[in-house]
Amino acid sequence: MKIRTSRYEIKGKSVPRELSGLRIALFSDTHNKYYGPGGELIVSHLEAEQPDIVIFAGDGVKKSARNTDPVKGTENAAELFTAVASRFPLYYVNGNHERRWQKRSRNLPYYSGYVRQLKAAGVHYLRNETAAAAGGRLRITGLDLPPKYYKMRRGRLPHLASFIGRSSEDAFDLLIAHTPAYFPDYAAWGADLTLSGHIHGGIIRLPFVGGLVSPHRRFFPKYDYGLYELDGHSMIVSSGAGDHKPRLTFNNPYEIVIITLIHEEAGDGA
Ligand SMILES: [Fe+2]
């Protein structure tokens, strides 16, 4: 199994001077995959990159409508995230699979146990919460949407603040949102940078065409992979480091994303 490193630079005035040079690692959609003892494959990748912080953008477990077993599909996840958190500050958000796990009441003690275990290991488990980092100049907010928002085809999310409160005026707002579908609303909320996953590169990727099928069978999802910009707000969508169904890996490898923030005054030509 190969994991590729994808690199991006986010430059501009919105990056405070104090955050210039900050390196963020993003991975997502591991879906209970086994990466060797202690999450070796992911951990060694991160150790080679030495990011300042690590973001996990959701779907750490693998749950289908048919998988009602409270444990099946979650056995490897805690080991991976515990190992990552022992080395790096790790910020975790739920995806639709964590939400599906919570759907049955008999699963709830297992889900709660998972969250407890991760928090005890030092994971910043952000369920519609914000954490301050880098001396308060960086605000990291984790969006945890109810399941219905993963099914909407052309939905909007104008009431985002009812989930996560307001963005800040002076800090750099990093939003972790499992689904990239609501990028215009994330930007309007004030997210300087949104980090997402969920689409798995579109499951089937063809050169020049992009993703063909999203997890919810939408053809040509608008935000399927890579960097998007809107009025000075950015979003990076990762193709994920795992899968929940057989994946055609042609032109769509597993990836870890490394993002460098760079302060730049507009028009200084630097
Ligand atoms: Fe997902």
Polypeptide structure, described:
- This protein is of the alpha/beta class and 270 residues long.
- The chain has a single domain, classed as Purple Acid Phosphatase, chain A, domain 2 (4-Layer Sandwich), CATH 3.60.21.10.
- The protein is built from 6 helices and 14 strands.
- The chain has helices spanning 40-49, 77-85, 96-101, 108-120, 161-164, 183-189; strands spanning 3-12, 23-27, 53-56, 90-92, 124-125, 129-133, 138-143, 172-177, 193-196, 205-206, 210-211, 226-230, 233-237, 254-263.
- It has a 6-stranded mixed beta sheet, covered by helices on one side.
- β7 (138-143), α5 and β8 form a beta-alpha-beta unit.
- The longest helix is centred in the middle third of the chain and has 13 residues, at 108-120.
- The model has no long low-confidence stretch (mean pLDDT 91).
- Residues 59, 95-97, 178, 198, 215 line the site of fe (ii) ion.
Gist?
The chain is α/β, with parallel strands linked by helices and 270 residues long. The protein contains six helices and 14 strands.
